[in-house]
Amino acid sequence: MSAPVLGKSYDRPASLDQPRTPRARSNSNFEKYAWVFMRLSGLLLIVLVFGHLTIMLMVDGGVKRINFGFVAGRWASPFWQIWDLAMLWLAQLHGGNGLRTVIADYSRKDSTRFWLNTLLAVSMVLIMVVGTYVIFTFDPNIS
């Protein structure tokens, strides 16, 4: 038995606030697949982003050569279109999945969680649609 310190007894642990009650479990493996996606997309993003940074900042004169013509020449190649598209989509999905987890952890009301997730999904889709549109419809011949 421990001795009281400053009038407190440490025989039993201090009470902690109860965590948010988890929602009913489903038989879905969505969270497992989301966890696996975060790990795999993170690894692929490391390759894509460091490749992007190496090409943009270190090869053939680095930053000095980046201008409209450089982007036009780069996006004339389907390889670079797919590279940039993969980077855009993976970054959006990876970041959105992480933010979805943060929303689930910190929003107390179901209605707040619903609206934050709705706002997140709409913004992700909007950015992916606009980014994809720009990558594939970029016209280097500005009139």
- Within CATH, the superfamily carries the name Fumarate reductase/succinate dehydrogenase, transmembrane subunit
- Helix segment count? 4
Whole-angstrom Rg: 24 Å
Helix content: 55-70%
Average residue-wise pLDDT: 86
Strand content: under 5%
Q: What is the β-strand count?
A: 0
Description of the structure:
- The chain has a single domain (30-137), classed as Up-down Bundle (3 helical TM bundles of succinate and fumarate reductases), CATH 1.20.1300.10.
- Helix content is 64%, strand content 0%.
- With 143 residues, it is mainly α.
- The longest helix has 29 residues, at 78-106.
- It starts with 29 loop residues before the first helix and ends in a 6-residue tail after the last helix.
- Helix 1 crosses helix 3 (78-106) and helix 3 runs antiparallel to helix 4 (110-137).
- It has helices at 30-57, 68-74, 78-106, 110-137.
List keywords for this structure.
143 residues; mainly alpha; 3 helical TM bundles of succinate and fumarate reductases; 4 helices; elongated
Summed up:
With 143 residues, the protein is mainly α.
Q: How is the secondary structure organized here?
A:
Elements: H1 30-57, H2 68-74, H3 78-106, H4 110-137
